[in-house]
Each structure stands twice: as C-alpha cells, then as structure tokens.
Known about the structure:
about 550 residues
Amino acid sequence: MMNKSIDPITTEIIQSSMKAITDEMFVTMRKTAMSSVIYEVLDFGVAMFDANGQLASSGSGIPGFIGMLEPGVQSVMEKFDETMIAPGDIFITNIPHKGGVSHLNDVVLILPVFYQSKRIGWLANKAHWVDVGGSFPGSISAEATEIYQEGLQLPCVKVIAKGELNQAVLDIMMINSRQPETTQGDFWAGVASMRAGEKRFLNLAKKYGVDALDFAIADYIELAEKISRNALAKLPAGTYQANEVTDDGLDIKATVTITPEEFIVDLTGNPPQQANALNASYDATMVDLQMIFKAIASPQTFANAGSFKPIKLLVDDNSMFAAKYPSAMSVYYETSIMLFDLIWKALAPAIPESLTAGHYASICGTFLGGPHPDTGLPLSIVEPQIGGWGASRSRDGVNALYTGYHGDTFNVPAEVTEQRNGIMIERLELNDEPGGEGEFIGGKGIKLYYRILADNWWITMAYVRSCVGPWGLDGGLRGSHNYINVVKKDGKKTRYRICTALQLNKGDVIEVFTANGGGYGKPENRSLDAIQNDLKNGYITPERAKEIYKV
Length: 551
C-alpha cells in the first residue's frame, strides 16, 4: 500500500502511537481493577481496531483474550446496524458461542470510536470477573452440563448508550454476582480503560486527520501480513501430526500442514462436544492456532489482524473444539491448552530451535472462597498456577513459569494473597517429584500449600495432565502430573484432579502440585556434572539418580 500524500514518518509515528494507546489502556485497567486476578495476575486483554473491526494494535496480557476480541467486535457489527451504533455507546457480551468470548466469566466490553460523526475504529476490553452467578461459586465447574448452570448471560447488549448508563443492565449484573462490589469495580475499570484509549484515539485523528489515520492502520495491518507470509515461507514445508490421550481417555489429534502460502490445522475427526464443561468454542480454538503460528513464524514482531491471514482451520461443528450453544464451557481453558500443546507437539520435531518438549500444559485454575476470617464478608480467589516447561535440545527447561497460553501474566504474591484474601500460604517451592529426566531435564513445577483460616470455605478446580504427564522429545521422559491434595484437619488426605465447590473448614490445607516439564534426549546422555548439580539443587533424589542415570 502506498499513499504519496502521507509521508512515511507520519505513518510510523501514528503506528507507534497506536501501540502507546493500547499500552495506556492496559495500565489503566491494571491500576483501577478490584480483583487480584486482574491487577496482579493480569488476566485481561485490551485491543484497538479499525473501522471494520480488524485488530490493529493490542496491549499486554492474555494473548488468547486479544485474539478473541476481533470476533467480539464483529459480533456487534453483525447484531446492530449502523443506525444503532452511536458515539458514547459501550456494548457488553460474555456468551462464548456468539463470538469474542471464552467463558461467561470473561466479560467483553466494546466501544465504537467516532470522530466528526464518522466511526474511525473500535476499542475493546476483556477480563475475568470473579463471579457472574450460576450454580457454582466462582461460576466455574467442570461438571456443568449446559451454559445455563454457569452464570448470567449477556447477549451483546448496550450497557451504556450515548454516554448514559443503562442502570438496569448493571443492576442485573450485580444481583447475579456473589461479589457485586467487585463486579461493579471491574466493570468500571474496563470502561475507564477504553475511555482512556478513546481520548488518545481521538487526539490522533484530530492531529493527523482521518485519512492519515486510516492509511496508517491499513498499512500496519498490511505490513504484519507481509511479515507473516515472509516468515511462513521460511518454515519447513510439510505435514506434521500428533495425538494424545486425555485424562478422560479421549483420543485427540491434530494435523498441521505448512505450505508457502498457508498454515493449515486440521482437527476433523476429534471427539464430539462433551457433556461437561471441557469444551472450547471455534474462536477459542482459532486463537490456539494464532498463538502457535506467531510463536514460530515471527515472535519478535507486533501482532494484528494481518499477522494471522495465512492461517486456516478445519474443524467439525459440534466437536469439543467447536462446541455449539448451549454447551457448558466454564473450563474451556483446559481444552484449549490441551490443543495448544498438541499442535506444539506436532511441530516440535520439525522446528526444534523454536519448540521445546511438552510443558505442564494446564491452566491449573484454582478457585477458592468463603467468608473472610476477619470481616466475615464473602470473597473469591481466582489463581492459575505456574509450572514446569519442557527441555530443549540445548538446555534444561524453565522452572515455575506460566503456560504458553498466558503471555504477560504473573502469579499472585503470597503476601497479597494472605493480606487481601484471608488465607495462609504455608509453602511455595519447586516440585521435587520425579519426571522429566533426559539429557536435558524438564523444568520444575511447584508445590503450593494454602491453609484455610475460616469455616465454610470451598474449592473448585479442574487440572488436565493429572494422569498423563508432559511429553518428552528424542528419548526424554515424560514429566510429572498436575493435581491437588485436600488435607483435612484430622489428617485425612484425598487427591483430586477435578472438584466443584468442595467444602473446606478452618485448619484444612490444599496442597497444589504442578507438573515438571518433559525431558529432551536420552537420560544416559546427561553429563555427570549436570547430575551432580541436580542432586545439589534437590531436583532429584540419590535413589532416582541411581534408577534413571545409573549414578
């Protein structure tokens, strides 16, 4: 694309400003949100779009959220004609089957941006709200059988119209939440985030003119496509396959075909949508492809709609990777991370310089709640867990890192959890369980112990890779498993991979274990110095070293 009336320096300034806009939106959300899963974990995403709803720029945060925001904006344009979209409007949606959403807790806010009566773009914000009602505290349960059990559904409605709040919509959201003040706070944080972006967006249009702005956005998207297509041509052409057996005994498979023009992922023939909440939407599945493609093709460059033009997805309707309404989806993320890991596994032997052995590959979403031990007020904790990454062909795996699905997110510091949420962190250390041995060893997961300090608490969780550990490469061993132990105050210990609203009382302890990543290379090729360091660091016991390494 070339426009001689707009000089390249102005174009680049506008494009850099677009990134600054989404960065400011991100910071605004982080500084104003009420729940720790947003301001500490950064379980949210923000993005900027052109007038036609194409992703133009994005902030930090959850990559999967950002990728799904484009179909979210498209869903507004499909539902409302041009006469029904006005300056000052903000739309809200959270139904995962309808575009732009992952599960009901991930609430999407969308704002059209107008300058001189012309729509010049869109802004969007998506964040995990701690409770949106439904049958289960935290609105999460792997055992849900339909979406009606999972919480309040917001079918792409105007929550603010021409700058005026629709109080009825806000009242409905708050009365359906077990934590209405937090819900309201996170809602207004999302609004503030987008209004900060809108102010900067309008300043760009005023300073440079709409024509220059439109050109710069279109040029930015076109540039991203060129970068991706050039990178695609350098990837090893061919067809690559992988399969895994899930903890529930389901056979899942993926076939990836790389050509000079397309990155094709074929998921046809996979299991049908499940009679539980382990389902993902088409949009969530597409994001898996986008993240893997970006990671191997052009990881160091910016991302927008152009970055993903070469991607093609083949998937059966009504499969667990493209489930239809009203299927349950509250733990969609475990299905999505399984697929993300499966595509990774298919490509890893062909692109060893970019992809490691398997990582712990579970979001390990841990939902705890109950009355605060000091105030008695109800609260909910939402915390994904960190775990071990797989080894590469040249080095050991990384310890205690979030999954490849998470992007720029962090675990909640123990001090914040204890002070804000009224729970004690008794232990946070690397997992010393066996697994992931090889010439290069998988990174270590964690042990995290929560002690409950009040009666009438509960826990909900669903971890995958609880029975089948992360895969190794080139002779490396599989890693360990993700699971929890619930230790009652009388000493009785029970292991779980899935539970919903399990009753807890004062003195009970939750022991979280996340998996060690897969190993790379045959264990007999590990150097003696490396084994001695493993022993010194407590990564392996003398007995296990003798068993695996004959040392």
